[in-house]
Amino acid sequence: MNVRGQHLTFEQHMEIRDRLARNEMPADIAAAVGCKVESINKIRKKAGLMPIPSSAKTKAPKAPKVRIPPLPNRMQVETVLPTPAAHEIRRFLLTAAQDDTPIHLPFWRNLMAYAEAIGAEIMVGGFTYQKGLFEDHSVAAGRFASELVPHLRAEAIRLAPRLVWRGNANILPTATDPLAGWDTQTRDAWGIFPHAKIALKCVPVMPGKPGKQIMTTGVATVENYVQRNAGQKAEFHHTIGATIVEVMGDRFWCRQISACRDGAFQDLDIMVRDGVVTRGNSVEGITYGDIHREYLDPDKAQGSWGIGGSPAGGAIVDVLRPGYQFFEDVFDFTARSHHSRGDPHLRARLLALGMDNVEDGILLAAKFLEETRRPSSTSVAVFSNHDGLHILNWLRDSTAAADPVNAYYWHRLNAAYHMAIRQGDAEFMPHEHALREASADRLENVRFLREGESFVICQGVAPIECGLHAHLGPNGAKGNAASLAKIVERANVAHSHSPCIRDALYQAGTSSSLMPYAARGPGAWHHADIVTYKSGKRTIVTYCGSEWRAA
After folding, report:
1. Which residues contact 402 (CB under 8 A, 6 or more apart)?
2. 373: CB partners within 8 A, 6+ apart
3. What percent helix, strand, coil does the chain show, rounded to 5?
């Protein structure tokens, strides 16, 4: 601040603020701090307080000049880090911090231990909230815990050719949607923003272009909110955590880490507790991106289940050893779904590709469920629109009886359905019957959920509902992340093929390539799964080719 030619240092500025808060007289403050009374009165005036005349005419001794280097805090400034070699792994642990707020010491110690164990650089993005009356609300003017200061990076840094750290975003911690308006700020690059609330969303890109995500980090400082409307809501979603970034050449992987109350956290198979890092830990469950077996992506199949060969670091199911595997839209029912039945050109294309036989698609999906089973894991097939509803709608369509390719199979499934009705079997599901019939052992150890059936994991810790596909929303409306984020339960869903984190809702991506009926216009599809830890904490794992992490 410049008052009649006098420059106040950062330390003087903060000391004046503290002394005014204790109702000390301006003359006393001026003498103690080493500045003019006019400087104090100027600050009081900006705060809406009446200036107090000085009775002393003597000048206060000048304080020694101390230069406080400002933190870069301008959008147009971007530091570009050199790209590592194709087989060199560079790691970063990114988190956030609120000014004038204590850090969560157990988490910080664990984060430091993890950084040392994996050779990662820690970067902290500061943000301001409820600043005193005398500050300029910039991160550069904030006061942060001494442990954080060496790691503060309040600037834009390009960590990889298509990945930008926006440590200077300074988003209010009370923002309901901290990513609102940031979709295109990093252009075609992924963006990571420091914030106290965990969030993730995908940004649509033109067909054929690499996908884009933006996400927040979680925070290393404890809850510190004004106990009013916005503050209490923000406190509920306050998440101690960080985002890990792994870079190999022009490839990179990002995933978020959420800590427990004691500061312990798990990142994939690595657990960090009390400063001790252990490896080889299993997880509670994996919710895979929609399968659509007819269009299963070969790289995703390899990375998730080792189908067609295991990736360098092993398939995710074999490394994380989930207690539950959740499969949604197991088959696409592309042969006679509502997308193809009324489209003669698509029907002709499917005929040319040899994909117009319904039973062939069922056999393919049954074999997939056999291949993906693991002895230590329960496979759960969630009732979904493509497998559960599309086959029901086809069986209800009487014109299908005249379809020479599929008429026999249509009659056979309808006969089984009518038999179940006669026997009073209200739980009969045609897609389950068809898949079990197509398997030699009737898909032993595969659990099929009915539509709307609840399946909760992590009970007794932090329950998570995994029985929803998300094609249905509240009160019978169409489902989407926005509506399902408002239900009482914490939930893992899929359906949209676009991973996101919205409040307590986590949404997986897809395991398929682009389907013919969906390969039009900009899209936000990603190969991404939800990994749920035994603590009830979750993360979204996004694939780069067949790799789900740097290895």
Report:
1. none
2. 379, 445, 446
3. 25, 25, 50
**Cα(183)–Cα(186) distance, integer angstroms:** 7
pLDDT per residue, tens digit, the chain (551 aa), is 444 445 677 677 777 777 776 777 777 788 777 787 777 777 766 655 555 554 434 344 444 444 445 544 444 578 999 999 999 999 999 999 999 999 999 999 999 999 999 999 999 999 998 644 334 445 554 688 999 999 999 999 999 999 999 999 999 999 999 999 999 999 999 999 999 999 999 999 998 899 999 999 999 999 999 999 999 999 999 999 999 999 999 999 999 999 999 999 999 999 999 999 999 999 999 999 999 999 999 999 999 999 999 898 999 999 999 999 999 999 999 999 988 888 899 899 999 999 999 999 999 999 999 999 999 999 999 999 999 999 999 999 999 999 999 999 999 999 999 999 999 999 999 999 999 999 999 999 999 999 999 999 999 999 999 999 999 999 989 999 999 999 999 999 999 999 999 999 999 999 999 776 666 789 999 999 999 999 999 999 999 999 999 98
In the block, which residue shows the tokens 């988190």? 95
Is pTM beyond 0.70 here? yes
Task: Report the 10 Å Cβ neighbour count for 123.
Answer: 25
Cβ atoms of 494 and 328 within 8 Å: the answer is yes
Length of the chain as a residue count: 551
Q: Which of 485, 476, 474, 519 is nearest to 201 (CA)?
A: 485
Widest CA span of the chain, in angstroms? 105
Q: In sequence order, which residues have a C-beta less than 8 Å from that of residue 89 and are 6 or more positions away?
A: 246, 247, 248, 550
Neighbours of 478 (CB within 10 A): 9
Asked if 302 contacts 543 with a C-beta cutoff of 8 angstroms, the reply is no
- Cβ neighbours of residue 180 under 8 Å, at least 6 residues apart? none
Residue 202 pairs with which residues in a beta bridge? Answer: 213
Separation CA 256–CA 242 (nearest Å): 6
d(CA 288, CA 499): 11
